[in-house]
């Protein structure tokens, strides 16, 4: 009798501990989305290594592998990562970061990931130029005495990709605004749609209207690469996400809070990302003065990009570990005491 009773109690406890199927599915979806970033970076590195070994070369940057047989991997990884960022939609709103006696208010990690996702595809579809001295990697060639260029034979396919991106961006933003029209507007709610609109207009202008310098645009004597501006904005937004994860004590987007050790690592990763971004920006600045090989014989841009991607993968590996068994609960019914308590808890945490 006792064994039977104990068995029933154990079965009841197990049933209570088990989550409904839809919650388990949500947990697994988020778990593997985070893990997919690690796999994506690994795939990009593998593609670059294969192209380098097969071709017997090491390019000056990972971006330059667009002009090698690794192009499909390069483009596919960046677009897939951007879609995964959009799918990891958290609470949004604002993130309040303590700075001594003051508080710095930033967009939430969810908003910043959406912001970064705008620029991921741009890194993929708007290439850097190709040097005339390295012709033979593709069927494209520079014309006349140009030392580097976007080959004119490649321009139509880049325009096709850019126009597809612009129209897709418009559709996504319009659909999301319609879907969220009845939701209470949160702080920084317009950051992503406004950024998307400005990006679409500017990209159309520089690609189809004032496109004499494409894939650059010129301001006076200065030339700026659309590709590298998109790269900077992507990694700057992402580094901010990592910093917020490390500095914020009560993170309403984390049902499984980070340990002190994990927070310390997030801070270290954010600082390393910021240093890497400054390193790459510094290389871009000196290049404006004609110094394109700051460290002779060393692919400094490729090194900086590889470090940034590695830090990106390490962060997502840590996030996956931290939130592997994240607690996911069903939402209480509107108007109930539980719903009011949840709303109060979220407001306090933010």
What does this structure look like?
Helices cover 61% and strands 7% of the residues. The protein contains ten helices and six strands. Strands 1-2 form a two-stranded antiparallel sheet. Strands 3-4 form a two-stranded antiparallel sheet. It has a two-stranded antiparallel sheet with strand order 5-6. β5 and β6 (222-225) form a beta hairpin. α2 (21-55) runs antiparallel to α9 (300-322) and α4 (109-125) runs antiparallel to α5. The longest helix is centred in the first third of the chain and has 35 residues, at 21-55. The N and C termini lie far apart (52 Å). Residues 8-17 have low confidence and may be disordered.
Low-pLDDT residue spans: 8-17
**How helical, in percent, are the residues?**
55-70%
What does the radius of gyration come to?
Answer: 24 Å
Spatial arrangement of strands, main beta sheet? 1-2
- What's the number of domains? 1
The geometry reads as globular
Q: Taking all residues together, what is the mean pLDDT?
A: 80
Number of helices: 10
Keywords: Membrane, Transmembrane, Transmembrane helix
Transmembrane segments: 37-58, 70-90, 111-128, 162-179, 191-214, 226-244, 264-289, 301-318
Describe this structure in a few short sentences.
The protein is mostly helical. It contains 10 helices and 6 strands. The chain has one domain (21-349).
